[in-house]
Amino acid sequence: QVQLVESGGGLVQPGGSLRLSCAASGITFVISDMAWFRQAPGKQRELVAAIPSGGSPYYANSVKGRFTISRDNAKNTVYLQMSSLEPADTAVYYCKALNTAYWGQGTQVTVSS
Question: What pLDDT, in 10s, does the model give residues 3-30?
Answer without folding.
Answer: 999 999 999 999 999 999 999 999 899 9
